[in-house]
Design brief:
Shape of chain A: globular
CATH class of the largest domain in chain B: Alpha Beta
Strand order of the largest sheet of chain A: 7-6-8-9-10-13-14
Oligomer: heterodimer
Helix content of chain B: 55-70%
CATH superfamily of the largest domain in chain A: Response regulator
Number of helices of chain B: 22
Number of domains of chain A: 2
CATH superfamily of the largest domain in chain B: P-loop containing nucleotide triphosphate hydrolases
CATH architecture of the largest domain in chain A: 3-Layer(aba) Sandwich
Distance between the termini of chain B: 72 Å
CATH topology of the largest domain in chain B: Rossmann fold
Radius of gyration of chain A: 23 Å
Number of strands of chain B: 12
Helix content of chain A: 40-55%
Number of domains of chain B: 2
Strand content of chain B: 5-15%
Number of strands of chain A: 14
CATH class of the largest domain in chain A: Alpha Beta
CATH topology of the largest domain in chain A: Rossmann fold
Radius of gyration of chain B: 28 Å
Structural class of chain B: alpha/beta
Chain lengths: 403, 588
């Protein structure tokens, strides 16, 4: 009895202290003149930081430009970005903080699928709209107020391989056999499995299918198996430097694949290494016409090149990540401007019902899981640069797929 | 168990349980959930690795087993979330026990080997999950899993689950720390071989600790699967979990029940404090720097510093007021150990050894030794260096398993049994070079043996008794210091007190007098006489012949592992073989 009383007394004191410590933060004023606060997290430290820093730079460029144009609804924009340390659980907690404690007006998504899903969960609980840059697995995003800025389409497992095979079918020497080798990284794996199905339907003979675990560094055995299989096309489900490592391993075997496609390679190393000649990949934006015919895109490219160089980035050109990030901000601005509101529901309804012109093309969100058209294009390394080669209307002037 | 501590943990739990209803911003629930999450992981790691010293880098595997247990059952098969948690605990604990059942049998797999082995388990498990239907590559999505209503919102429900689990983990950690089981684990940490000889069932205890540790990690994983809502192999089995829990435990103090929780709170808060986007890299560098500084200047952790400070304070106190010999601390008369009248040797056989042989490779350190020890006697075991005396003690205490022969003690056949069975049967020993448990105080060293020796007392009982034996050995004023603060004489007497605390039927003294001064030897002889007078049978291995002659009823002489003579002291000393063994054969 005595100890029960003690427990109750101690609990009461502790609860009192807690309630003081946890008193709600002062609600942010939404008054005219105060800044519009946009909150997000990025993986500024940890294993995903190299790419997340691109998103940070793009966000800074966009917000500066937006403020120089008068801000959003006549109010300056303040971007609060926190470091989720490349951890989805930290991302979730920080988004909770942004919504319930910092009380930001709007949300912007984090980088990488795991963190985006965490952020979507928070947005869903608090009825916030979430625009995000690079969600790789559309089927996982089921919230009706999330909007992807990366125009993958609702079924990239089918549409992306079809785009690639269309491009190759239009080439002088279409491949007849295919080897598919892929990392088991989730957003790569499902696309590679999709490519298997599509290849089968289109009559391509699969001569090899291999998987490796994300983090693998030994590509010698995989290269040897590919060489033995003698495919016309190697479809590589790679991310970061995996593709470079595979091509280096092939080079050591004196083997050069006739055609090789890479899903998400590190753009700089894949463009410049000697053995990566003619590498194919997917893109939504590259630094050439017709993309840069859009003055907004041209201005962004110029600013990004300068700032990325000043920041010491290893690759200073605008490509998929930077373009997706820029697009996300364009969507946010378009929705707020069109609805003249910061109301999440109104903005989300508007985005669902309308199309938005962005630097990667016109985006809409009226298909499955709020995805729209698949705007993925095929690019190729030519003379040490990435150039879009397919579809023709987005190809760099005079560029053709090389074999 | 200190009721105030248990009450404190429960009170803190109840107070935190009120948070979701206090109207605080919901992010506090998420943040505190993360604190609870890391507390569970760090404290559970510590139950095996901190308490026993078996440093594991495989906590991520058991955590991952829990994550995937819940993810697969709730996300793929559609079990209710709460029902998956016992399964997550079971899967993780079963994995740990399966690993431990094999690994703990191999004496050489300790230290870094154990750490590497557990790390390898993480990779093996990740590979299995990635390449089977459990995951297969794409990860498991859990946003659709229903969270039972344990609070005003789903976040609050996860918070409550985290809280309850953290409170349970702390209670378990404290219960172990304060229990006989915990004393056994700490003894394993300090010297596993000695712990086993002192009666600690080391294999079983390590398995229990591993099962509890893994089960709790599995629980943390099960809850966390739904918290993060998208589970992938690369993130689940990354090196983050094992590295973080090691760091947290070391920072907080791995010898203390709450140390890892302190470390978990400190590091989680520190990392969270530096999440501002403008200074992210700088913040992480600062976190690293702070941790390096703290670990450099507090290698035993925050709680370790506190414990050391307490030891130092006690040491200072006893140095100021050294009590007279054979008196307890603070000048009180030493408690009197109830001594029996001088026993009569009954003639009844207590220990019977038949054909005892111990070979190391091709060399027989003991060769076909057959002897009996009768109740109440002091049997002297002598012989030149290398004659097999210490090997005899090591085999009869169970420290070494015999190669051949039988050991029957008090009517029980102990041949081939684990050492703790020998101790529990009533055999105790001292070590020629004292081997106290280095991080236990003198009192704890002696009490530990009372708990696991012949009578198997409770912790409180054993501690009370230990005070008596410490006084008997004249060490009351050193009761709360660590063995490193004792001189050789005191360490030898600690060995004696520790062996006596088992209340053994047979006490084997292995050269307890070596290295002592003549006056200390006199003191020791007197003490051994008093031990025998209590009714304890003694095997006395010694080179100091004065003591052998004064104490022993009978002498057995070993040479090259074989028994060459036995009988009363005078007859044995005049035996030609014995003279030849000590002095060499006369050739003239």
């Amino acid at each position: 009895m005595k100890s029960l009383k003690r427990i109750v007394a101690m609990a009461a004191i502790a609860a009192g202290c807690l309630s003081l410590a946890a008193s709600p933060a002062k609600a942010q004023s939404g008054a005219q003149g105060s800044p519009v606060r946009v909150g997000s997290t990025l993986a500024l430290t940890g294993p995903l930081s190299a790419t997340a820093l691109v998103h940070k730079l793009v966000g800074e460029i966009y917000v500066e430009d937006l403020n120089s144009r008068g801000g959003l609804l006549g109010r300056k924009v303040e971007w609060i970005v926190k470091d989720d340390q490349s951890k989805p659980d930290v991302a979730r907690t920080l988004y909770e903080q942004l919504v319930t404690s910092d009380k930001v007006d709007l949300l912007m998504g984090p980088y990488a699928t795991g963190a985006i899903l965490s952020a979507i969960g928070v947005a869903q609980r608090y009825n916030k709209m979430l625009i995000h840059h690079t969600m790789g697995v559309p089927s996982l995003a089921k919230y009706d107020m999330h909007f992807p800025a990366w125009s993958l389409g609702p079924d990239p497992g089918t549409t992306v391989p079809n785009t690639l095979f269309d491009a190759l079918a239009a080439s002088p020497k279409p491949p007849k056999t295919i080897a598919i080798v892929t990392s088991k990284f989730p957003s790569l794996h499902f696309l590679s499995l999709g490519a298997r199905e599509v290849a089968k339907k289109r009559g391509l003979q699969e001569v090899l299918f291999l998987e490796w675990e994300f983090g693998n560094r030994d590509f010698g055995p995989i290269a040897a198996r590919v060489k033995d299989a003698k495919p016309d096309l190697v479809f590589v489900g790679d991310i970061g430097l995996e593709g470079n490592m595979l091509l280096e391993a092939m080079k050591k075997l004196d083997y050069e694949p006739p055609l090789h496609f890479h899903l998400y390679p590190a753009p700089g190393p894949m463009a410049t290494a000697p053995e990566t000649k003619n590498a194919l990949s997917v893109t939504i934006f590259e630094e050439h016409a017709p993309f840069t015919n859009d003055p907004v895109a041209a201005k962004f490219v110029k600013t990004y090149n300068e700032r990325a160089k000043a920041a010491g980035f290893p690759y200073t050109k605008v490509e998929v990540q930077a373009a997706a990030s820029f697009t996300a901000w364009q969507l946010l601005e378009a929705a707020a401007t069109a609805t003249k509101s910061l109301d999440d529901k109104k903005m989300a309804e508007w985005l669902k019902a309308n199309q938005v012109k962005t630097i990667q093309g016109t985006l809409r969100f009226d298909k499955g899981n709020n995805f729209g058209d698949d705007l993925m294009r095929i690019k190729q390394v030519q003379n040490g640069n990435w150039v879009t080669v397919w579809p023709k209307e987005w190809a760099a002037p005079g560029a053709m797929l090389k074999q | 168990m200190n009721k105030a501590i248990v009450s404190g943990i429960l009170a803190a739990g109840i107070a935190f349980a009120a948070l979701p209803w206090l109207g605080a911003p919901a992010f506090w629930e998420s943040f505190l959930y993360l604190l609870f999450h890391w507390i569970i992981l760090a404290v559970s790691w510590n139950i095996l690795s901190g308490y026993t010293g078996y440093f594991s880098f495989g906590h991520g595997a058991f955590f991952g087993a829990g994550i995937y247990g819940t993810a697969y059952l709730a996300g793929t098969i559609g079990w209710p979330f709460l029902a998956t948690l016992p399964a997550a605990v079971f899967v993780a604990a079963a994995l740990g026990v399966a690993l431990g059942a094999v690994v703990f049998r191999v004496a050489s797999v300790r230290g870094e080997l154990f750490a590497l082995l557990t790390l390898a388990v993480t990779f093996v498990l990740a590979t299995i999950i990635l390449n089977t239907k459990i995951d297969g590559g794409p990860g498991i999505y859990l946003l659709g899993v229903d969270i039972p209503k344990l609070g005003p919102s789903p976040s609050a429900s996860l918070y409550m689950l985290g809280l309850v689990s953290a409170v349970a983990t702390l209670l378990i950690s404290y219960w172990i720390y304060a229990s006989k089981f915990g004393s056994g684990l700490f003894a394993i940490h300090d010297d596993e071989d000695v712990a086993e000889v002192m009666g600690v069932p080391t294999y079983r205890f390590k398995l229990y600790a591993l099962a509890i540790s893994c089960g709790l990690a599995g629980l943390a994983g099960g809850i966390h699967a739904v918290f993060i809502s998208y589970v992938t192999v690369s993130e689940t089995f990354s090196i983050t979990v094992p590295l973080s829990v090691v760091l947290m435990s070391i920072l907080g103090g791995s010898r203390h029940w709450i140390g890892p929780a302190v470390g978990a709170v400190f590091i989680t808060c520190l990392l969270y404090f530096f999440t501002s986007g403008d200074y992210a890299v700088f913040g992480r560098a600062m976190v690293g720097l702070i941790l390096v500084v703290v670990i450099l200047f507090m290698p035993t952790g925050v709680l370790g510093v506190f414990t050391n400070w307490r030891h130092a304070r006690r040491k200072q106190q006893v140095m100021v007021e050294p009590p007279p010999a054979h008196e307890g601390v603070e000048g009180q008369a030493a408690p009197v150990v109830r001594l029996a009248a001088k026993p009569v040797i009954s003639g009844e056989v207590l220990l019977q050894v038949r054909g005892l042989t111990k070979a190391f490779g091709g060399m027989k350190a003991l060769n076909d030794v057959t002897l009996e020890v009768r109740k109440g006697e002091i049997l002297g075991l002598i012989g030149p260096n290398g004659s097999g005396k210490s090997t005899f003690i090591n085999v009869v205490s169970g420290h070494f398993k015999s190669t051949a022969g039988e050991i029957v003690f008090d009517g029980k056949d102990l041949t081939g049994m684990d050492a703790h069975r020998f101790a529990q049967a009533g055999i105790a020993r001292t070590y020629q070079i004292p081997r106290p448990f280095g991080q236990m105080t003198v009192l704890e060293n002696v009490a530990m043996v009372g708990m696991f020796g012949g009578e198997g007392m409770s912790r409180a009982e054993a501690t009370r008794q230990a005070e008596e034996f410490i006084a008997f050995a004249g060490l009351s004023h050193r009761a709360h210091v660590l063995p490193e603060d004792l001189n050789l004489h005191q360490r030898k007497f600690l060995e004696l007190a520790r062996a006596l605390a088992a209340r053994p039927k047979l006490l084997m003294l292995d050269e307890v007098l070596s290295g002592l001064t003549p006056s200390e030897i006199n003191e020791a002889i007197e003490m051994i006489q008093r031990i025998r007078d209590r009714g304890t049978t003694i095997i006395f291995v010694e080179h100091v012949m004065r003591a052998v002659m004064a104490l022993t009823d009978r002498i057995v002489v070993l040479n090259y592992g074989s028994m060459i003579a036995q009988g009363n002291a005078v007859d044995v000393m005049n035996d030609d073989q014995v003279k030849a063994a000590y002095l060499g054969k006369a050739h003239a």
